[in-house]
Write a structure and sequence with these properties.
mainly alpha, three-stranded mixed β-sheet, globular
Amino acid sequence: APTFSLVPESLWATEVLAAEGFTYSSSVLSAPNPLFGYPGAPTEPFLWPSGLAEFPAPLAGIGPVHMPFLGGTYFRLLPWPVIAAARRFGDVGPAPWTYVHPYDFDTEERYWPVPDAGRLAPLLWVGRRRALAKMDRLLASGAGLPLRDRIADAVAGGVFGPATSVAPATVGAGAAATATSPRDRAEQR
Protein backbone atom coordinates (compact mmCIF):
# COMPACT_ATOMS: atom_id res chain seq x y z
CA ALA A 1 0.00 0.00 0.00
CA PRO A 2 1.43 3.41 -0.88
CA THR A 3 2.98 5.53 1.90
CA PHE A 4 2.53 2.72 4.44
CA SER A 5 -1.24 3.22 4.30
CA LEU A 6 -2.12 -0.25 5.57
CA VAL A 7 -3.79 0.69 8.86
CA PRO A 8 -6.55 -0.88 10.97
CA GLU A 9 -9.19 0.77 8.77
CA SER A 10 -7.79 -0.78 5.58
CA LEU A 11 -7.15 -4.36 6.67
CA TRP A 12 -9.62 -5.56 4.06
CA ALA A 13 -6.86 -4.83 1.52
CA THR A 14 -4.78 -7.79 2.74
CA GLU A 15 -7.50 -10.17 1.54
CA VAL A 16 -7.68 -8.39 -1.82
CA LEU A 17 -3.89 -8.47 -2.26
CA ALA A 18 -3.77 -12.19 -1.50
CA ALA A 19 -6.70 -12.88 -3.84
CA GLU A 20 -4.89 -10.97 -6.61
CA GLY A 21 -1.85 -13.21 -6.24
CA PHE A 22 0.44 -11.04 -4.13
CA THR A 23 2.54 -13.11 -1.74
CA TYR A 24 4.10 -10.35 0.34
CA SER A 25 3.52 -6.77 1.37
CA SER A 26 5.65 -4.06 2.89
CA SER A 27 2.79 -1.72 3.67
CA VAL A 28 2.87 -1.45 7.48
CA LEU A 29 4.68 1.22 9.44
CA SER A 30 4.51 0.07 13.08
CA ALA A 31 4.90 3.61 14.42
CA PRO A 32 3.10 6.97 14.21
CA ASN A 33 3.73 8.94 11.03
CA PRO A 34 2.50 12.29 9.65
CA LEU A 35 0.57 10.50 6.88
CA PHE A 36 -0.19 6.98 8.13
CA GLY A 37 1.07 4.53 10.69
CA TYR A 38 -0.04 1.44 12.57
CA PRO A 39 1.37 1.74 16.11
CA GLY A 40 1.05 -1.59 17.86
CA ALA A 41 1.44 -3.67 14.70
CA PRO A 42 4.31 -6.17 14.83
CA THR A 43 7.74 -4.89 13.91
CA GLU A 44 8.90 -8.32 12.73
CA PRO A 45 7.61 -10.17 9.64
CA PHE A 46 4.24 -11.86 10.12
CA LEU A 47 1.45 -13.48 8.16
CA TRP A 48 -1.96 -11.90 7.74
CA PRO A 49 -4.91 -14.34 8.10
CA SER A 50 -5.09 -14.30 4.27
CA GLY A 51 -1.61 -15.86 4.16
CA LEU A 52 -0.04 -12.65 2.83
CA ALA A 53 3.45 -12.19 4.33
CA GLU A 54 3.97 -8.72 5.80
CA PHE A 55 7.39 -7.13 6.17
CA PRO A 56 6.91 -4.00 8.31
CA ALA A 57 9.24 -1.07 7.74
CA PRO A 58 12.48 -1.48 9.71
CA LEU A 59 12.42 0.96 12.63
CA ALA A 60 14.97 2.63 14.84
CA GLY A 61 14.28 4.76 17.83
CA ILE A 62 15.10 6.15 21.18
CA GLY A 63 12.69 5.39 23.99
CA PRO A 64 9.10 5.52 22.77
CA VAL A 65 9.92 7.41 19.55
CA HIS A 66 10.50 5.14 16.53
CA MET A 67 10.78 5.87 12.83
CA PRO A 68 11.77 4.10 9.65
CA PHE A 69 15.30 4.75 8.43
CA LEU A 70 16.11 2.48 5.50
CA GLY A 71 14.03 3.99 2.73
CA GLY A 72 12.66 6.94 0.85
CA THR A 73 12.71 10.32 2.53
CA TYR A 74 14.06 8.91 5.79
CA PHE A 75 17.00 7.31 3.99
CA ARG A 76 17.79 10.54 2.13
CA LEU A 77 17.49 12.81 5.19
CA LEU A 78 19.42 10.80 7.76
CA PRO A 79 23.23 10.96 7.72
CA TRP A 80 25.05 7.68 7.02
CA PRO A 81 26.37 7.23 10.60
CA VAL A 82 22.77 7.32 11.89
CA ILE A 83 21.66 4.77 9.30
CA ALA A 84 24.63 2.51 10.11
CA ALA A 85 23.92 2.70 13.85
CA ALA A 86 20.20 2.11 13.30
CA ARG A 87 21.00 -1.02 11.30
CA ARG A 88 23.07 -2.32 14.20
CA PHE A 89 20.70 -1.37 17.00
CA GLY A 90 17.32 -0.81 15.32
CA ASP A 91 14.36 -3.13 15.16
CA VAL A 92 15.24 -4.51 11.73
CA GLY A 93 14.16 -8.07 12.49
CA PRO A 94 15.40 -11.15 10.68
CA ALA A 95 14.75 -9.77 7.18
CA PRO A 96 15.69 -6.08 6.93
CA TRP A 97 14.79 -4.41 3.67
CA THR A 98 14.85 -1.02 2.05
CA TYR A 99 12.73 0.79 -0.47
CA VAL A 100 13.46 3.68 -2.77
CA HIS A 101 11.67 5.44 -5.57
CA PRO A 102 13.19 6.65 -8.84
CA TYR A 103 12.76 10.24 -7.66
CA ASP A 104 14.92 9.53 -4.60
CA PHE A 105 17.93 9.61 -6.96
CA ASP A 106 16.73 12.12 -9.58
CA THR A 107 18.80 15.26 -9.08
CA GLU A 108 17.54 16.76 -12.35
CA GLU A 109 13.84 16.83 -11.45
CA ARG A 110 12.60 20.36 -10.98
CA TYR A 111 10.58 21.18 -7.89
CA TRP A 112 6.83 21.03 -8.28
CA PRO A 113 4.11 21.02 -5.61
CA VAL A 114 3.14 17.40 -4.94
CA PRO A 115 -0.63 17.07 -4.44
CA ASP A 116 -1.72 15.94 -0.97
CA ALA A 117 1.83 16.13 0.47
CA GLY A 118 1.20 19.49 2.13
CA ARG A 119 4.06 20.93 4.11
CA LEU A 120 6.03 17.68 3.69
CA ALA A 121 6.37 18.16 -0.10
CA PRO A 122 9.77 19.95 0.02
CA LEU A 123 11.25 16.91 1.82
CA LEU A 124 10.81 14.94 -1.40
CA TRP A 125 13.73 16.93 -2.86
CA VAL A 126 16.11 16.98 0.11
CA GLY A 127 19.15 14.69 0.06
CA ARG A 128 18.85 13.41 -3.50
CA ARG A 129 22.45 14.21 -4.38
CA ARG A 130 23.74 11.93 -1.59
CA ALA A 131 21.17 9.14 -2.01
CA LEU A 132 23.01 7.07 -4.58
CA ALA A 133 26.25 7.12 -2.60
CA LYS A 134 24.33 6.06 0.53
CA MET A 135 22.68 3.22 -1.37
CA ASP A 136 26.08 2.08 -2.64
CA ARG A 137 27.34 2.00 0.96
CA LEU A 138 24.28 0.10 2.12
CA LEU A 139 24.62 -2.51 -0.61
CA ALA A 140 28.38 -2.82 -0.05
CA SER A 141 27.71 -3.53 3.64
CA GLY A 142 26.01 -6.80 2.79
CA ALA A 143 22.40 -5.65 2.61
CA GLY A 144 21.90 -6.55 -1.02
CA LEU A 145 19.63 -9.61 -1.12
CA PRO A 146 16.35 -9.09 -2.98
CA LEU A 147 13.24 -9.24 -0.80
CA ARG A 148 12.09 -12.47 -2.50
CA ASP A 149 15.31 -14.13 -1.26
CA ARG A 150 14.83 -12.70 2.22
CA ILE A 151 11.29 -14.09 2.22
CA ALA A 152 12.56 -17.55 1.22
CA ASP A 153 15.17 -17.39 4.00
CA ALA A 154 12.59 -16.20 6.53
CA VAL A 155 10.14 -18.97 5.59
CA ALA A 156 12.89 -21.63 5.66
CA GLY A 157 14.09 -20.33 9.03
CA GLY A 158 10.60 -20.49 10.55
CA VAL A 159 10.34 -16.72 11.07
CA PHE A 160 6.63 -16.67 10.30
CA GLY A 161 4.41 -18.11 12.99
CA PRO A 162 0.70 -18.86 12.72
CA ALA A 163 -1.21 -15.77 11.65
CA THR A 164 -3.29 -15.69 14.82
CA SER A 165 -0.25 -15.60 17.08
CA VAL A 166 1.83 -12.99 15.30
CA ALA A 167 -0.63 -10.72 13.52
CA PRO A 168 -1.77 -7.56 15.30
CA ALA A 169 -4.53 -8.21 17.83
CA THR A 170 -6.95 -6.30 15.63
CA VAL A 171 -6.28 -8.74 12.80
CA GLY A 172 -7.62 -11.80 14.60
CA ALA A 173 -10.44 -13.82 13.11
CA GLY A 174 -13.13 -11.38 14.26
CA ALA A 175 -11.48 -8.28 12.84
CA ALA A 176 -10.62 -9.95 9.56
CA ALA A 177 -14.18 -11.14 9.19
CA THR A 178 -15.67 -7.73 9.92
CA ALA A 179 -13.17 -5.60 8.01
CA THR A 180 -14.79 -4.15 4.93
CA SER A 181 -13.67 -2.25 1.90
CA PRO A 182 -14.91 1.28 1.13
CA ARG A 183 -17.06 -0.26 -1.64
CA ASP A 184 -18.62 -2.74 0.83
CA ARG A 185 -19.36 0.07 3.29
CA ALA A 186 -20.97 2.15 0.54
CA GLU A 187 -23.17 -0.80 -0.46
CA GLN A 188 -24.25 -1.25 3.18
CA ARG A 189 -25.59 2.33 3.33
